[in-house]
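help with these tokens:
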Amino acid sequence: MPLNDLVVALCDMHQVNISIDPFHVPDPAVPVTDKVGGLDLKSALTILTAPRGLGCDYRYGMIWITSAADAEDWHDPTGVAGIQPASGSDLARAWNEPTAADPIKQPLAEVLATAAQRLAIEIDTSLLASAADSNDDFRVTARVGGLPFRHALGFLLYRSRCRCQRDGDKLVILPPAEE
């Protein structure tokens, strides 16, 4: 079974969110033929990933399958982990609210505008428009339904390689850093 199909089955079976890192797993359809019945999920994932040079980590409120090296030495490139909303602010209230978003090739700015409206917070995506070219408006496809807003935000930003920072009670979304 391809790894990506196995992940879908494991998500359904265990009622957990599992993501395959699109930037550190070169072939998400790599065949997996191991049999790991009767094991807990953590042990099974270790047995399934380690021989393929992959590892597991916990990021953005979900299990993350990535390269073994990335799992050992990861830092949040989105800036979300460093954001501390001001106590009592609208952003603090929304930070842990469950978010319902399962966009399919939808512009990041539209996904975040919907979340901002529903959560009654301010998210400035204006810098994305100036950074996007005609072929890239930072489209995202993701399953983030039910995750706290902060995790959904981190996941969506990671998938689009964008970043964010807090400006008072507003989130400012930044385009990918120059590499």
User: Anything to note?
Assistant: The chain has a mean pLDDT of 90.
